[in-house]
Amino acid sequence: MEFKYVLMEVKDGTAYITLNNPQKKNPINIDTGRELRECFDLCDYDDSIRLVVIRGAGGTFSAGGDINAMKERIDKGIRGTRPVCRVLGETFLRLRNVKKPVIACVEGAAAGAGLALALACDFQIVDEATKCLFAFVNLGFVPDSGATYFVTRAIGTTRATDLFMSGRMFTGREAADWGLFTTAVPSTELEGTLEKYIKKYVNGPTTAYANIKTMINRAQYSSYADGMQSEIELQGMCETTEDFKEAVFAFLEKRKPNFQGR
After folding, report:
1. 80, 31 contact by CB (below 8 A)
2. What pLDDT, on the 0 to 100 scale, is given for residue 88?
3. Superfamily the domain 6-187+206-252 falls into
4. Mean pLDDT, residues 206-218
5. In the chain, pLDDT over 90 holds for what percent of residues?
């Protein structure tokens, strides 16, 4: 099946899903979310697929939300954030429920919804120099795409509060040391480490893996839907602020935003 924003290839029992808009650093927009969900359905229902790998084209995993799409909505006076939040939230929950091990191979940069995509996977193999940030607050937004859910459960509320409210950058190595990622390695070891994981899990007990994921999801994500609804409501509220508009224009104009708190 052909997609516009992602590539999917199946080889030796492994499905390789690649975010494929490298000119824009593989942003996650509503169309990307829909295509990813189709890929996850295909991976889940095809018994010949025993493992899934997700990565980004062009040496970057994903820069997160599509700022140009946000600017277009502002220019047209359209409020489109809530549908985007709903689609991405549902897509990443669908990913959590794929009954195969899923590995994110992360390099270059991972931000916002792109970072949340990696965290929705079972394993994250990351170039230790990867630049990571939860950039939502820098746009006057709250975290979406399940980020609050994933991060607080992985590293606790104290660290999550710092990362979400500061919007600061951190490295793949730092994230792995905190427990946010599975492992971080030098760039020269990234492909070799990925191959080791593929070899182990593509040949493993698939049914046991599926049941382990089900148990983890029941223990940790039973109220995910409630959290997603909060994201939709609060992000929709943030979209109406002057701070959001100022942040989008400032980003595109390559200047620091002047937030007014309204």
Report:
1. no
2. 92
3. 2-enoyl-CoA Hydratase; Chain A, domain 1 (3.90.226.10)
4. 94
5. 72
- Over 80: is that where the pLDDT of 64 sits? yes
- At which residue do the structure tokens 């799409």 appear? 69
Three-state DSSP at 104 gives strand
pLDDT band, very low/low/confident/very high, at 1 (cuts 50, 70, 90):
low
- Bridge partners, residue 9, by sequence: 16
Given a contact cutoff of 8 angstroms between Cβ atoms, the answer to whether 37 and 5 are in contact is: no
Would you tell me how many other CB atoms lie within 10 Å of the CB of residue 180?
24
Tell me how far apart the 2 most distant CA atoms of the chain are, in Å.
55
Cα–Cα dist 110/127, whole Å: 11
Buried b (16+ CB within 10 A) or exposed e, 6-26: bebeeeeebbbbbbbbeebbb
Which residue ranges make up each domain of the chain?
6-187+206-252
Cα dihedral sign for 23, 26, 31, 37? positive
Q: Supply 134's token pair.
A: 């939860």
Give the separation between CA 252 and CA 10, rounded to whole angstroms.
37
pLDDT at res. 221: 82
Q: What are the φ/ψ torsions at residue 170 (nearest 5 degrees)?
A: -145, 160
Q: Taking residues 161-178, what's their average pLDDT?
A: 97
Asked if 168 and 137 count as a contact pair (C-beta separation under 8 A), the reply is no
Q: Which residues pair with 104 in a beta bridge?
A: 54, 124
Per-chain mean pLDDT for the chain: 93
Res 35 pLDDT > 80: yes
